[in-house]
Specification:
The chain is built from 13 helices and eight strands. It is of the alpha/beta class and 365 residues long. The strands form three sheets. It has a four-stranded parallel sheet. 33% of the residues lie in helices and 11% in strands. The two termini are 53 Å apart. The protein is globular, with a radius of gyration of 32 Å.
């Protein structure tokens, strides 16, 4: 903590200076209340100065003394910057957000392009991403999507079709509030066949055939939790509601064209989502006190495949548990995904961190 400049006048000294005589210079040693030895120099042309002259001399001496002490004090710029930076992160629940004020801050074009975000993005996420979605790269992404028919939540589909439906693009943000995130599973693209994508990576709606990668995920859970009976559906909504953020790094795709919306801007946006999770993920889990209360204390990232591993490469491994392996695709699952033990490892770490309530019931689907 820096010491603010302190004005010390002659009357603050423990030993008063001796009276000066004509044309003499008297140098008297004294000390401040802090025990600091100093020298005070005074000049006088008369041993019996008038009150007016004495006041002037005292004022001059005090000014000189004040300047000398201030020179000795450490500069405020020498204060450690880490303490300042630490207090800059507000608690998640203290961050204010008013939708009406936010809309009023927009230009007409922004209101048109960001209608979907305002209507469908979970508010715990929108309040920390509200500035991000006003950036030029995101507005350019939204212009591109607007031309393809992705506008408001109930926009009629155009040709070629874009998946998932606009109202489902931010499903992940509504089912998994930011402060309740325990685990992040990172995918790449939404499924690109009709009816598959619904805003959660690796998941499909009820009635849709279970994708091969998800079948391998079920098989690994069965190996770790023998009592698990894989369901006859691929809907992972129960995981999302239990704190598992199922996030694709690209949130839209053109029908039957895998990767068609890559490098349009989604990757930049979801990188910011991960950054927000780094700062606030799990903020409302368990019990905490002191500075960490209301701020992220660490969660689990499951990064399967080279792309997912790249997305989490810069995260603090001392703060988070980061588990990587090959992708669960049939092309690679038996080269390191099967047998990786990720689901049990995640729960063991979460229980140590947050207690039994911090665990995910992977078998409940």
């Amino acid at each position: 903590m820096s010491i603010p400049p302190r004005v010390v006048y002659l009357e603050d000294l423990e030993k008063p200076a001796a009276a000066a005589t004509k044309e003499n210079i008297t140098v008297t040693e004294a000390s401040t209340a802090d025990g600091e030895a100093v020298k005070v120099e005074m000049k006088s042309t008369s041993s019996t100065p008038s009150n007016k002259t004495a006041a002037k001399k005292t004022s001059t001496g005090a000014t000189k003394r004040q300047r000398s002490l201030m020179d000795m004090m450490p500069s405020s710029s020498s204060a450690p910057s880490s303490k300042v930076a630490k207090t800059e992160l507000p608690t998640l629940n203290s961050i204010p957000f008013s939708m009406s004020d936010y809309r009023n801050s927009m230009t007409e074009e922004q209101k048109k392009l960001l209608e979907l975000e305002c209507e469908t993005m979970g508010k715990s996420w929108l309040k920390v991403l509200k500035d991000e979605i006003k950036k030029p790269y995101f507005l350019n992404l939204k212009k591109f999507l607007y031309e393809t028919g992705v506008r408001g939540p109930d926009s009629a589909p155009m040709k070629p079709e874009i998946y998932p439906a606009p109202k489902n693009i931010y499903t992940w943000s509504n089912l998994t509030p930011l402060g309740r995130v325990k685990v992040v599973i990172i995918g790449q693209d939404p499924y690109h066949n009709p009816g598959q994508a619904h805003g959660l990576c690796f998941s499909v709606p009820p009635g849709i055939q279970i994708p091969p990668s998800l079948r391998n995920i079920y098989a690994e859970i069965k190996a770790e939790y023998p009592g698990f009976e894989p369901p006859q559906h691929g809907n992972l909504t129960a995981w999302a509601e239990n704190g598992v953020l199922l996030l694709n790094s690209v949130l839209t795709v053109e029908k039957k064209k895998a990767g068609s919306h890559q490098k349009k801007g989604w990757e930049n946006f979801t990188a910011q989502v991960i950054d927000v999770v780094d700062r606030y993920g799990g903020a409302n889990l368990g019990k905490s006190g002191g500075f960490s209360a209301g701020r992220g204390r660490g969660i689990v990232f499951l990064a399967w495949g080279a792309w997912a591993a790249q997305c989490v490469a810069k995260l603090d491994k001392n703060k988070h548990l980061i588990l990587t392996s090959v992708h669960p695709s049939p092309l690679s699952a038996y080269r390191g995904f099967m047998g990786n033990g990720h689901f049990k490892k995640a729960n063991e770490w979460l229980e140590r961190k947050y207690g039994p309530d911090g665990c995910v019931d992977w078998t409940k689907l």
